[in-house]
Amino acid sequence: MAPPSTFRGVNSCSSLGIGLAGFGTVGSGVWNTLHRNGQLITGRTGGGVTLHISKILVRDPARVRATVTEVPREVFTTDWRALVEDPAVDIVVELIGGTTDAFEIVAAALRARKPVVTGNKALLAERGVELFALSKEMDTPIHFEAAVAGGIPIIRTVQDSFIGNRIHSFSGIINGTSNYILGRMTDAGLTFEAALAEAQALGYAEADPALDVNGWDAAHKAILLATLAYGFPIDPKEIHVSGIEQVRPTDIAFAKNLGYVVKLLAVIREHADGSVELRVQPSFIAKSNILASVHGVFNAVAVHGDAAGESLFYGRGAGQDPTASSVVADLVEAARSLRQTTGHRGFLPYRESGELRPVSETSTAYYVRFDVTDRPGVVAEIATVLAAHRIGISGIHSPVDPSDPDAEFKDMVFLFHTCSFGKLQSALDEVAELDCINSTPVVFRIETLG
Ligand code: HSE
What's this model's pTM, rounded to 2 decimal places? Predict the structure, then answer.
């Protein structure tokens, strides 16, 4: 007869205690999901995994939402050390965000040999190399499915399902908040600010929504995917990121007329020379592309593996229950790791270095909006500079009625043929010097995917 399986010092039938650091949208979702589906989880793991939350770290217990009524007050603490060191806590879940206190909590849990579950992409993108080295040293895993694309199991897909593939590319809509905002601006004509307020009310946005709209939340997720796929540490300072703050209804209308939609797109691609392109930018994608149909808070990641070919992963990328779904899956994985050594599962580099392709050497076509002072000759002045840089123009548009002799325009939109971003940037720097140009030109990539 097989010997009874045991957790580290705990019998397999024992209930495992969870220390939940953070009890906001996702934390309370984890509480609800475990209460709703706890028995189901225990049943599905053959009785091996029974999870209960034994400590919750909050800033102020008095301010815990009234809606989460069943939580006994004695589980709350305001001291993260008390949570990590509590003998009743076997697994630590970090959901407080940020890269300072969160780092301390995760590092302390690993040193105490307590598996960690986190949804903190900023922490792992900025300080993951240190934390995964510690995870390896302590032989204690960090699980982070919830860090990328909410309820979509994309981390497991890359770590497990696609482990036998050389991954050629990822193209992803991986920030729910910005996708929601762009959608509401497109469909309901909302202002950027009104759409952001809605996304915050729905619990999609980060505690600091600047990260959602400036592209960095998506960039942190892209760094995690690229590091898993290509195995070398990626310095966030070396990648090109721009967000949706400068997207105007004009751009959305132009995109629509031209057969495109505007999306904040993360592109990760391995080139034939082994260099890796990684960038996050507002982009025009053809209405016929499947990613154009990703609306609201939904995320989608298209993965191209050499063996699997094209796959698309689609689902809710933010929000309470979808993100809690990923945290709970990781909790079960963490519980299993307490029973048996599963090996290191993070993104500790497996090669010393790799080459990140400079954004100046990445090429697409472009849509560029210029804020101009209307006067005869403006178009010629801009076109002359572009011609000198040997950049082809495929379209010029201005939103004025040509039959109105008094109409003045402010926005002038150019479409440019494919060229390197470096070449475009040099030309735009020169255009910006023209006295008819009032502010920095706004650039969108026109992406040809797949
Ligand atoms: N703020 C993030 C988003 C949540 O909007 O996608 C999930 O990471």
Answer: 0.89
